[in-house]
Amino acid sequence: MNLSKKSNEEEIQSIFLKWYKKNKRDLPWRSLQSNKLPNPYYIFVSEYMLQQTTVNTVKNRFDEFILRWPTLDLFSTISSTSILSFWSGLGYYSRATNLLKAAKFIKKNFKSQIPKNYEDLINLPGIGDYTAKAILGIAYNKPVMPLDANIERILARVYGINKPLINIKKELKNKSNFFISKNSSTKLIQAFMDYGSIICTPRQPNCQICKIQSLCKAYKKNLQNIIPIKSKIDLPKRKKYSRAYIFYNEKNEILVRKRSSKGMLPSMLEVPNDDWVINKNNLVHDKIINKIKNKMLSKGSVEYSFSHFDLETEVFYISVKKNIYKDQKWLKIKNMNKVELPTVMKKIVSIAI
């Protein structure tokens, strides 16, 4: 009997599944239920948390999240203040508000069950093509192949596509269809992700121990350190400047206020600070400074790196009586880590108090 030869794609699938069985990463959202699939709620939460955040960072915070809100039913009842407070340190705070909005919508419209089809998922706040397919494939074993940075890199190298990554997105999406598994989607998707994280890494990939080197065109042409090609040269980050003001009263409290619901750090607490500007000479004192008669003490500067720019903030301190600012919101120093105060603001406070 003649057996048809496996295609390269089928062979890679088989190799990855065997490799994954022995080498998969131990991640808390991957714990299996009785149906041998992960908890859809866990995958739903983890995919939001993993957007633009490293796996190692999310690992520690995910357990804390699930301990606090073990079910979507419970999570969907909380306020935006609660999730923003928890999210401090994870960055990209719009993910937190989108996650909560999506959970509330799911509770209302899907009886607290994470949707099982693409159209319902893609319409949720904060969910794009990748996240929708990741939830479908990993949580429900649906035959899809999401494209994250790890999977794109593997495919670009396997097919030896020596072009800027931004120009081959559609081609990679078409190639990814060859790897869709009808029966083992949940394992295969995670195998691709882990292989890209452990073996087919962005820099200096571990080609000598790679199980698919004979099927990889980039390896055969010695292009594995070139592919995928970045479309632009990494430019230095822009720098922005601000001044922050710590008002400290006799009750060991600092003056805080809520940020705008739009822009950076939406709806989170902050200490008073000037608008962030690119030219330091354009700094304008926050209006609350107009009430100050005594000179504020400079406590030095804090630098904090956001994804697209670095912020340098000169920090000023003054001791005041609470009744002078009785219409303002005050936060006890001992409660600083229990509220939605972003990391940059905590750093600013810590240099002054």
Structure report:
- It is a single chain.
- The chain has 353 residues and is of the alpha+beta class.
- The protein contains 13 helices and 6 strands.
- A 3-stranded mixed beta sheet has the order 1-5-4, covered by helices on one side.
- A hairpin with a 3-residue loop joins β4 and β5.
- The longest helix is centred in the N-terminal third of the chain and has 17 residues.
- The protein is globular.
- The termini are far apart.
Q: What multimeric state do the chains show?
A: single chain
Topology, number of strands: 6
Largest sheet: 3 strands, mixed
| Strand-pairing-aware structural class | alpha+beta
CATH names the topology of the largest domain as Endonuclease III, domain 1
Question: Can you tell me the CATH superfamily of the largest domain?
Answer: Hypothetical protein, domain 2
Helix content: 25-40%
Q: Domains counted in the coordinates: how many? A: 2
Average pLDDT reading = 92
Stretches with pLDDT under 50, minimum 5 residues: none
- Hey, roughly how much beta strand do the residues contain? 5-15%
Instruction: Using the alpha-carbon principal axes, give the shape.
Output: globular
Distance between the termini: 80 Å
Q: Give the CATH level 1 class of the largest domain.
A: Mainly Alpha
| Helix count from the secondary structure assignment | 13
Tell me which CATH architecture of the largest domain applies here. Answer: Orthogonal Bundle
Helix-strand sequence: HHHHHHHHHHHHEEEEEEH
* Rg, alpha carbons: 25 Å
